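Notes from the 1:1 (GR / supervisor)

We went over the backlog. Supervisor wanted to see one worked example end to end before approving the batch request, so GR pasted a single chain during the call. The sequence is below; no edits were made to it. Supervisor asked that the structure be written out right there so they could see what the output format looks like.
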Amino acid sequence: MSAGMPYGLQAMLKDGHKHLSGLDEAVIKNIEACRELSKIARTSLGPNGMNKMVINHLEKLFVTSDTAVIVRELEVAHPAARVVVMAAEAQEREVGDGTNFVVSFAGELLSLAEELIRDGLHPSEIRDGYQKALEKCLEWLNEELAIEGTETMDVRDKVAVAKRLKGTLSSKQSGYEEQLASIVAEACVDVCPKKNAKNFNVEDVRTAKIVGGNINDVQTIHGMVIRRNVEGSVRHVENAKVAVFGCAVDTQATETKGTVLIQSGKDLEEYSKGEELQVEKYIDEIVESGCKVVFTGQSFGDLALHFLERKKIMAVKIPSKFELRRVCKATNATTLIKLGKPKPDELGYASKIDVVEIGDSKVLVLKQDDASRVSTIILRGATANAMDDLERAMDDGINAYKALMRDSRAVAAGGATEIALAKRLSDYAKTQTGLDQYAIQKFAQALELVPRTLAENAGLDATSVIASLYAAHSSSNKNNNRMGVDVSGDQETVDLCESAGIVDLLEVKHWALKLAVDAARTVLRVDQIIMSKQAGGPGPNDARAG
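Structure output shown during the call:
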C-alpha cells in the first residue's frame, strides 16, 4: 500500500464519518444518553409529576408532563436514545398511556446494566437475564397480580368505565380525574358500536377547544361541534334531513370549454336570467327532497345563498375535507359531487342543529338524540397550553377505553404491582445458578423506580416508603400485595390505592414492560456506532469561509 493511503474502515468510508466502538466509546456512551433521557421523563411520573417546558424547532411552546409529547418535540438525535423514543412511540400507538414508564424504566435498566458491565459481566449475559426476568414478570402479571373480578366488565356501563379510566387520567390532571373520567366514559360509550364493541374507533371521539371558562365547564356533546357560524340567517333546525355536497353550491361550469357571444344588453339580461333560473331549479330540487340543511366543502354562490334564505334552508360551509367526512359519518349522509336533487338514501339526519355562543366563539352544534357515530368533548381553559394539555389527557383516556376492549383486567396502582414483581423476582434470582442471576436482581431493583419516583415527586421519604411497601407485601394478607404509594398528603405513606378507585390497566403494564425491556436489550446489543458524513453544506450557525 502506498504511503499516506488510509486503510481499514478509513479507506472504506467517506471523509467526515464517525466511528465509535468498544465498551467505553459505544456501550457506555449509549447507556449515558438513555439515562439522561430517562432523567428528563422521570420527574413527570405520577399525579405530582412536574411539567416540562419544551420549545420545538418551530418555536412552538409545550408545557406538559406527557412524555410522548416531550420526547417527540425534543427531536432526540442520539441513535441509542432514539431507540428508547421509538419504544415510547410504539407504546403510545398501542395503548396510548404508559409512555413515561417505558422511557424511565428503560433508562433505569440500562443504568443498572452499566454497573454490572463495570463489575465484569458481558452485555450478552445481562440481556439474557433481563429477558428471563421479563418473561417471569409477564407470567406473574397475567396469572397472579390481576385484581379479581376485573376480567369481566360491561364496556357500555358508563360508571364502570369511568372507574377504570381514573388511574390513567389521575396522572395527567390530578384532582379532576373523577370528573374527566365520567366525561370520557360518556363520550366513548355513546359511539361504541352496538354489535361489536371491539370495532370502537378512537377517531369517532373528537375534541373542540374553546378559550375561556375552566375545567369544570368541560362537557360532552352527543354529535359534533363545528367551530364555524352558518352562512345565512337560519340558525336553528330540528329533525332535519341533511345534504352534503363536495362541490360548490353555485352555478355549475360546463364540462367543455365554450364562448358565449353577447351582442346586446338584452342578450346579457337573458343570459343572467338563465343563470338565475338554473340556480333556482337546483335549490328547488334540494327543497323537494325534504332537506333542511345544506353542507358544502367549497362555497356558496350569492344567488344560491339568496334562494336558500328564501326557502329557510340552513347553509353551512366546511372547508376541511376531514371535517366534512365526519359530518357525513355523524349524520349518515353521502357526499354528493354534483349539485342536484339528492336521493333519499343520500340524505343524512340530524335531531337538532344550533348556532351556540360559547365564550366569545360562535359554534355550530349538531346533536343526535339516538345513536350517533361521532361524539365531541368541548374543552375549556384560560390558555391554549392548558387546553392542549387537557386534550392530551382526554386522548390518553380514549385510548385506554380502546385498550379495555382487548383486555379489561386491572392491576394495583401506586407502584404496588412493581413492588410485587420486584419481591418475586428477588426470590427467583436466588434460585438461578448462572451469571444472569445478577441481571435478574438488577431488574428487580429497577422496578423500584416507580414507587420511589412517586414518593420523591410527592415530597415523601422514598427510602422509608420503599421499606414500608416491602414490609406490607411480605405480609400473608392477600390485600397487602396491592398496597401502593399514597400521594394524597395523608400521614400514612402506604395505602390500598384501589380503595380510592385508582387502578392501572394490565394491558398498559404488559406493553410498557415488554417495550422498555426490548429497547434496553437492543441498546445493550450494540457494540459499534458508525455514522456517515451528513449530506449538505454547512449549517446556518457554522462559520463561513472568507
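Supervisor's comment: The longest helix spans residues 265-288.
Batch request approved.
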